[in-house]
Structures are given as C-alpha cells and as structure tokens.
Task: structure prediction
Amino acid sequence: MSGVLYSLVALGFVLIFKASGVFNFAQGAMVLLAGLALVRSLDLLVANGFPLWIAIVVGIGFAAVIMAITAWLIERFVIGPLVNQNALTLFMSTIGVTFVLEGAAQMIFGSDVYPLRLFPTDIWLLFESHFPGGILVNQLDVCGGFIAGILVAGLAIFFQQTKTGRALRAVADDHMAAQSVGIPIGWIWFVVWLVAGLVALVAATVWGTKLGVQFSITFLALKALPVLIIGGLTSVPGAIVGGLIVGASEKLAEVFLGSHIGGGIEYWFAYVLALAVLLVRPQGLFGERIIERI
Amino acid sequence: MLYREAGQFKTTYAEDMAIFPIRQDRMALAVLLGIAFIGVPLLADFDIWPFGSDYLLRAILLPFLILALAAIGVNILVGYCGQISLGSGAFMAIGAYSAYKLGTGVHIPLAWLGFAISIPPLPVLLSILLGGLAAAVVGILFGIPSLRIKGLYLAVATLAAQFFFDWVFLRVSWFTNYAPSGSVSAPTLDFFGLNVGTPIERYMLCLIFVTVFAFLAKNLVRGNLGRQWMAIRDMDIAAELIGIRPLYAKLTAFAVSSFIIGVAGALWAFVYLGSWEPLAFSIERSLQLLFMVIIGGLGSIMGSFIGAAFILILPIMLNLLPTQLGVPLSTETITHLEFIIFGSLICYLLIKEPHGFARLISIGKEKLRLWPFPY
Result:
C-alpha cells in the first residue's frame, strides 16, 4: 500500500519539525536525491562487473554519504544563518532548498526514470482457503511495513535514550533556551537533517522499487503533508498511522466514491480528509495539544 | 539632499493622512505612472527598441503586470494578515473559470425541477469582476478554518483548496463547456465596444486594472481594515484584547485577497493566455506567487511589483546569459541550472534580507535622507 510510503516520507517531516520547528518542504526532494544517488551508483557498479551485494552495500553507503553532505550543506548555509527567524521564513527557505536539490539531483544523476530492484516484489495470496481468491499481499509492502516499524522503534530509542536525542527534544521546545544552556544547536540540526536524509533514503529504496526513481516522487511526497496533519505534526507513530489511514482511505474513496463523481479523487481526497481533521481536532490524532491562552 | 522631508510642513489633517505624504515619493510615482501610461505606448508606437517588438510587451510586461496584481492579493493575505496560503493558484483558477463561464453564458439544467437557469453571456469587464467575486466567496469559505488553525496548518488547508480545484476544473466538464481536450478559449475581449487585441491595447488594459487595484489596496492597508489585519498578523491574542474581531478581520483579508487574485486570474486567462488549460494554475503558480511576495517584501504593495519583476526576469536572464557568454548549454541543463540558481538565490535573499527588496528600498531612502553626510 502506498500508505507505508507516505508514512516514510512523513517521518522525515516529523523528525525535522520535532527537532527544529522547521516545516521541511524539501523532504520530497531529499527522497528524490537519495533515490537517484543510490540507483545511479548501483547501476554503475553493476555495469563494471561488481557482484550485486557489494554494489548494494557501496551504493547505500554512497547515498548515505551524499545525504550527510546535503545535511551539512543545508545546516551550514541555509538553516544555520536563519536561527531565530520566524517559522514562515524558515519554511520558505526549505522551498528554496527544494529547488536546489531537485535541480542538482537531476543535473548530476540524470532525469530519466530508473528502476530499482532491492526488495522482492512478488505477490502472496494469503488465506486462500478462507476467502475466495484470498487476500493479495505484495511482499514489497510487507518489507516496507517491516522497515517502517524498525525505523520507528530505532527513532524512539534514539529520542528517549541518547544524549543527542534529549538535546534534540530540548531544541524543539525552545531554540534560545537550548542554546543558552550550552546545547550546540548547529550540530543538533545537522544530526536532525542527517537522520531525515537517511529516512529519505529508506523511503527512496522502497518507493523506487515500487515505482522507479523519478521526478514525480517530489510531487507524491506532498501527500505527506495531510499525513502529518492527520497523525499530528510532532508524533513519530502518528506519521505511521496517518500514512496508513491516508493510503487506505484514498484508495477506498477512489473505489467507492470516485466512480460516482468522475474519478481521480485520489488526487485531493487526502487533503480534504486533513481539512476535516483540522476542523475537528487541530492537533491531529497523536499530536501534542498546543494551548494558547493568556 | 535629494530626498529631504525637512521643510515639507503639513498644515491640514488631510495632508497628514495622504497616501504619499512625502513630495519626492509623489513625484517618483507620477514619473513612473507617466512612463507606464504615456511613455511605453509612445515608444511602442514609434518602434523604438526594445519597445517596438511585441516580445517585450507580450512576454514580459503583460505577465509582469498581471502577476504583480496577483502578488498584491497574496501580499494582503500573507504579508498583511499573516495567514500563509499555498492555494493562490486555485483562486486564480476560480477567477479565470468563473469569468469564462459568465463570459460565455451560464446554463444550469435543473432537470429534477423541470426548468433550467440560463444567464446570457455577460460583458467581459463584468465577467472579470464577477470572476473575482466568485473567488472571494470561495476564499471566505476556505478562510473559515483559519479561525481555528494558523501558520503551517493553514498552509495545508489552502493546499487542499489547490488540489481540489485543480481536480474540479480538470474533471468537471461543465466548467470547460464540455471541451473535449479540457482547454478553453477566452471570448473576444470587448470593452465598451472597443476590441482589445493588439499587445499594446492588452498592456494598457492590464495597466489600468493594476493601477486601480494597487491604489485601492494601498488605501485599504493603511486604513482601519489594514491596521486590523496587521494587528492580527503581529499578535492575534493582543489584537483580540484591544477589540479587533478576528473573525471579521481574517475573513475580510481572505475575501479581499481572493478577490484581487481572482481578478488577476481572469486577466491572466483572458488577456495573457487567451486559451488555457487547468495546468496554467497548478501548485507551481501558487509557489511562484508566494516567492514574489517573500522576495519583494511581506507587507508592502510596492514589494509585490518588485517581486513579480524579479521572478519573471530572472529565468529570462538565466536563459540568455550562457548564449551571450558563448557557453551554449543543453536545454535540460539550463532547466536544472535554473532550478539550482533560483533556489539558492531565494535562500540567499532570505538570509541576507528577510524583509525583501522593499526593505532595501526603504534603507536606500534612509541613506538618501542623510546624503551626502552619512551620519
């Protein structure tokens, strides 16, 4: 299901928002960049006669390094100088970053559609004895779900147990206060963007296997925004659950509603769903309630 | 010396409250309007380079004027009222398609009631303004969530508007008069019997629209309503405490802003594009408008013009420069380079001057005020 994919992209958003209060528009572009870096290095290594497993390891390593460099550049040149600006400025700057990443990724790695085969894409049929035809399960989706689960567990441990994780949460609460107790905010933001980049890499591998690595990833990644709203902007599990809800509901809406009103409602259904959630429960399903009273 | 307010005494309240209280500003504006209204048509008439060519009028000045108008609309919402919107493209589309429907005649078959509502084709001017009105109504509807949510949450709500209307105008063929390809053509542009066809006529038409709306907007934002918006933007709770109704202030901001954006959308479709398809008003358009406002300066009418000029001219320059320098690049590379340069420029500007070009101009004014002694 595409829900898992949305979740993976949304995770990157949540991480950055949680740790820096920046609404990162560039997450989709980061998925594209990670995917392209991985796919191109893989192709190159395989074409030069390396065995597949070396190619995969080196390719993932190469993409990770690229994401690290990106994270460092973004922190050093964009987000760092903008410390303590208002949220709108930071948001705009990430749109600028989006443009740079999209342009750079395609210029360096080419702008065609590249297929990626890392995970099995065969189809299982489960419970054939119980239901006529059984339930169709794609192995890729299972892998994706599995990876998402591991990621969430890992991130939870990282946030709760490590020193950096605790510093991250401090920075999220209040930049200035965190700075004044001696937390190196630049380093923290680098770590956050790095982790978001690695999550983007994971998303890219799953997404690339499903649809091929291509430019449209950045548009699909916009779907992560309603996922965030539904799950709550600051909640890691919320991103996962929100992604599943969006993925499932838009398919169901397409099948049951779309046929009546012209089809293609998958395109906006998630957003309208998010709008409805906003009106009823603005903080999302798992978000922290922000109380604004005097 | 050049820019000195000293000696300009205001002796009446009317003078004190004028739109442009400083003489030099008035003169600069008069010169600018003179060039725009008289100079450009004259230059075009006498075929003086570069104004003689249609290219400048059609491909640069026309979109500049219309996008500046749209940017004023966005600026009212984002810059003055502080409600971030990613759905401006949708409001342009609503303006364009409503104007199109009204301009070609509306026919609503109400089969279950046994009759149909038919409105004959309206005059172009009226349909453009009514298109703006339709956008205003939808804008108010989408402004309602802003009473409960703000900032980035609102961005997602307006994004919902963007995607929803993209779909509506693509799929609901009633809006396109059942055109099989989905693209529609504007009716002929008749204004009070005058047919607006040549580039220079189109330019003048847009110029009139833009001037009128810019003055209206400028007046609005310095008046009671504008001050309410700015109070809401700066701190909504404090604004509420001093007696500003957030409901009224926010919804008027949404209404005025979407009205202007809607009119700009109708102009964009009718005057600039002529025939168009839903893609003309996609999310990229929304982002482009937001960039104009941010780069030009949040909360500044003049900034909207500067931002629009910057965003339009930059890609053209980027396209021209490599060939001029003798480094021909493939179109693909140029597109990617454009993305990169554009993005980095935006980041650079945000870091160096978060208040946009309008702030640079006011710094310039300060410097001129002290010139030639910088202390």
User: Anything to note?
Assistant: DSSP finds twelve helices and two strands in chain A.
